[in-house]
Specification:
alpha+beta, Glutaredoxin, two-stranded antiparallel sheet, 20% strand
Length: 200
């Protein structure tokens, strides 16, 4: 006789919900730090060597020669990251051909799990609009520090979560910091910020 799949214990479900909520709160809280200490960006001299989702090498020059959007997250993220990826898709849709020169990067703060193959699956549905970035943890840390990004592992074992900055960075063609789009920001406001970036 077939048996129903066992459901998680109610207390375990409640614990997971609380943990996810704390991760989201921490991500939004970390974003507020930019009001007081905006990131320097690689223009301050940071150099790094990472790879994209196909394994092709990238360095600090990836952020020069064109306007960019950059987001730091990870593929196991339960809420902030998938929401932001969906937002990116909508922003590109709203911008249309105006965004032809705009690059977008999803930088993993969990390179141990986010291999190029994993990132390829994660950003693949965005039709080449977003480039996944991962690599050696030490090299990712250089990029993270250059932009003043907060990230912190929460939990043990294979199912850990990562608190992280939830903003999308606006990057000028010279690689300098222009501003941020906050997590959950109004769609029209976000698109107008990007239009300003594109206009130089």
């Amino acid at each position: 006789m077939a048996t129903a799949n066992p459901q998680p214990h109610p207390r375990l479900r409640q614990f997971r919900m609380i943990l996810w909520a704390l991760v989201a709160v921490a991500a939004v809280g970390a974003t507020a730090l930019f009001v007081f200490a905006p990131p320097r960006g690689p223009g301050a001299g940071a150099a790094f060597s990472v790879v994209d989702q196909s394994g092709a090498p990238l360095d600090q020059s990836m952020l020069t020669g064109h306007p960019s959007l950059m987001f730091f997250g990870y593929t196991h993220c339960p809420d902030v990251c998938p929401t932001t990826m969906a937002d990116l898709s909508l922003w590109f849709e709203d911008l249309g051909a105006d965004a032809d020169d705009l690059k977008a990067y999803f930088v993993s703060v969990d390179p141990e799990r986010d291999t190029p193959e994993v990132l390829g699956d994660y950003v693949g549905w965005l039709n080449g609009r977003v480039t996944g970035v991962t690599g050696d943890p030490d090299e990712i840390e250089k990029l993270v520090k250059a932009w003043g990004v907060f990230h912190e592992k929460v939990g043990e074992g294979d199912d850990y979560l990562v608190n992280h900055t939830a903003s999308v960075f606006l990057v000028n063609p010279d690689g300098s910091f222009e501003g941020t789009i906050a997590y959950g920001e109004n769609r029209d406001v976000a698109v107008n910020k990007i239009r300003k970036l594109l206009a130089g």
